[in-house]
Amino acid sequence: MIRHSATLAINEKLQAKRAAGEQVLHLGFGEAGLPVLPEVRDVLAGAAHRNEYGAVVGSAEARQAAAGYFSRRGLPTEADDIVLAPGSKALLFGLLAVLPGDVVLPQPSWVSYAAQAALLGRRVLGVPVPESAGGVPDPERLDRALTGARKDGAEPGVLILTVPDNPTGTLAGAELVKEVCAVAGAHGLTVLSDEIYRDLVHDSAEVRSPAAELPEHTVVTAGLSKNMALGGYRIGFARVPRPEQRAALVGVASEVWSSLPAPMQEVAAYVLAEPPEVRAHIDASRALHAAVARAVHAEFTAAGADCRAPQAGFYLYPDLEPLRAKGFTTGAQLAEHLLDRHGVGVLAGAEFGDDPAALRFRVATSLLYGDDAEQRWSALRSPDPVTLPWIARSLGHLRDALSAVLDGE
Ligand code: PMP
Ligand code: GLU
């Protein structure tokens, strides 16, 4: 049975509840709820006449701009290394289809990796993340798991890393990335590094890409869904340095999606050249994501949750183990209770491959910025967004819900 992806399913469910007039706090979906930069809208409008298919790999301008994007981030890249596609999700699927071997995942990790591996009939090996940060497996456990898996006849071939991470909202530090890559290299794995959140690191911490550690054996995917809040434009791109891997990916692309729509290639070329207004927009977005994620984190920790402090993007991964004493036995049961009784929508950790019995869940904080473009622009421009009435109200809703659940309601 092929399920509706948990992230998209909860979004549709919560939107329907809202449309029916219910008061719902939407913490279920990782959409970067921000308006489109006016200059981006203008580029798209000016490209509306572009109705040709174009090259499967992407336009020369967009590939050149994407190469510049990576090169400015310490990964020297040629335009030839780049493949654009409608969403990095499609690229991840195409890459999993062409890279051989069983798929190794950090536990927890984003919902679609395991689901895509299952669609492709591939075996998944989960390895828990360390305490310090998610998105990468604990290096020692990874080493043991790979050795054990080989003994059991498995053939681990691909390791997916998320730097920075969804669902934990953390960034694996440079040393940790190095250690994980050393293990991956020793076991001959190809690393698929999902860097879609790399521009949204809250402070100035260094993002160490696995591609800097294992340049010959790492493919990087990224996109404009998170940094520029353009999820619905579906612009993704991959850096695939090995020609044979690129050719195989392009083969899949040519049979499944043909190309990124031509008007979106123009948007990609414009954004990835990173003119000052684009940089300023991403800087403002990052500051807003950080302020709201920190405020939501404070609510959860005040309610007794164990939760890594947010370092990037717009996610938290709290553990509400103290609520086991109130009769909750699974994360899904707690998530259902939070929604049905308190109008708070979150996704249980089991959706991310975590232990179903754990009272952990993913909280996405990016849909708290407002219900319309005006509120969202105000949030982006505010020096203290958590004091805006609509954001403060949402934080109050969460506070009341958590204290009611702690009181056994
Ligand atoms: N990777 C991660 C970790 C994500 O959270 C998302 C969210 N959409 C994606 C990939 C896919 O993004 P897109 O297809 O919009 O590029
Ligand atoms: N990546 C986002 C999330 O984790 C939503 C979009 C998607 O899953 O495709 O909620």
From TrEMBL:
Matching SUPFAM superfamilies: PLP-dependent transferases
Signal peptide boundaries: none
GO biological process: amino acid metabolic process
MF (Gene Ontology): pyridoxal phosphate binding; transaminase activity
EC main group: transferase
Residues covered by the Aminotransferase class I/classII large domain: 29-364
Cofactor: pyridoxal 5'-phosphate
CDD domains reported in the protein's UniProt record: AAT_like
Keywords associated with the record: Aminotransferase, Pyridoxal phosphate, Transferase
Enzyme Commission number(s) of this protein: 2.6.1.-
UniProt-listed InterPro entries: Aminotransferase_I/II_large (IPR004839), AspAT/PAT-like (IPR050596), NHTrfase_class1_PyrdxlP-BS (IPR004838), PyrdxlP-dep_Trfase (IPR015424), PyrdxlP-dep_Trfase_major (IPR015421), PyrdxlP-dep_Trfase_small (IPR015422)
Matches recorded under Pfam families: Aminotran_1_2
Family to which this protein belongs: Belongs to the class-I pyridoxal-phosphate-dependent aminotransferase family.
Name under which the protein is recorded: Aminotransferase
Organism listed in the record: Prauserella flavalba
